[in-house]
């Protein structure tokens, strides 16, 4: 279980996160909504160690992630995607996945099997020997997701997975994300401006506004919350 308790992140005099708390149970999906600049990506950056929190606590299964490097957080079982996918452009798709399995003590056959499974899942297996730079932006997002999933994470942080992805690939992404908690046993923190997808996928939703939690609940609760309608949806 991921627990974030009273997380504060300041940049100089600017408070990006003003004491945010959240709980993400195992094998569930939490959607994180909010207008531009409300602190969603900062939250992901604090969890995966890219940013040092100003104060507050973050634990995964009782282990504190505060002060840990991104690599150490990855070793604790946290995988993360970015708004602009970070893949190794000059490597083949297979090599991109093999890199994530280094130092896991697996045989070449096991690495090949796991890689093939996830490349099939994201429907990129036929391109396995191509360089990652030859993929479209949407396909690179799928490859980045596969690279995280081969490492068998406990928690997956997804930053705008649907942005710039064509509708066909978005449907595939939605299907994969929906299946991830059961198939891998991970939980998912999903940051997206795509309201329909967040409502459809999330077990619980948290809406942020100016670095604070504005509302929390099911899709139905969020959609009918007057504060959310006024502050976020602008209607
Ligand atoms: N490295 C940084 N240095 C200074 N300010 C930052 C930094 N990262 C984020 N911020 C500021 O923190 C606030 C929250 O930004 P953040 O990127 O977390 O918002 P967001 O909700 O993810 O927005 P978007 O939906 O546009 O991605 C913004 O005012 C942003 O300018």
Automatic annotation (TrEMBL):
PROSITE patterns given in the database record: ABC_TRANSPORTER_1 (PS00211), ABC_TRANSPORTER_2 (PS50893)
Concerning Pfam families, the annotation shows: ABC_tran, BCA_ABC_TP_C
Outline the extent of the ABC transporter domain.
2-235
Recall the GO molecular function terms of this protein's record. Answer: ATP binding; ATP hydrolysis activity
* GO-annotated cellular components: plasma membrane
Q: Which UniProt keywords apply?
A: ATP-binding, Nucleotide-binding, Transport
User: Its family?
Assistant: Belongs to the ABC transporter superfamily.
Q: What is this protein called?
A: Branched-chain amino acid ABC transporter ATP-binding protein
Species per Swiss-Prot/TrEMBL record: Nitratireductor indicus C115
């Amino acid at each position: 279980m991921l627990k974030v308790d009273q997380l504060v992140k300041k940049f100089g005099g600017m408070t990006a996160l003003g004491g945010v708390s959240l709980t993400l149970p195992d094998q569930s999906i939490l959607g994180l909504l909010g207008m531009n600049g409300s602190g969603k990506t900062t939250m992901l950056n604090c969890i995966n160690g890219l940013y040092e929190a100003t104060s507050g606590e973050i634990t995964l299964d009782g282990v504190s992630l505060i002060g840990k490097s991104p690599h150490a957080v990855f070793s604790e079982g946290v995988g993360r995607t970015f708004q602009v996918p970070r893949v190794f452009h000059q490597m083949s798709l297979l090599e991109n996945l093999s890199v994530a399995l280094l130092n896991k003590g697996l045989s070449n056959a096991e690495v090949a099997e796991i890689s093939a499974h996830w490349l099939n899942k994201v429907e990129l297996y036929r391109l396995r020997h191509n360089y990652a730079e030859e993929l479209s932006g949407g396909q690179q997002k799928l490859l980045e997701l596969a690279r995280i999933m081969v490492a068998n994470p406990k928690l997956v942080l997804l930053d705008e997975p649907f942005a710039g992805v064509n509708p066909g690939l978005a449907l595939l992404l939605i299907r994969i994300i929906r299946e991830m908690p059961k198939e891998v046993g991970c939980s998912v923190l999903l940051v997206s401006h795509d309201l329909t997808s967040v409502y459809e996928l999330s077990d619980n939703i948290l809406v942020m506004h100016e670095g604070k939690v504005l509302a929390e609940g099911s899709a139905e609760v969020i959609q009918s919350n007057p504060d959310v309608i006024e502050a976020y949806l602008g209607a």
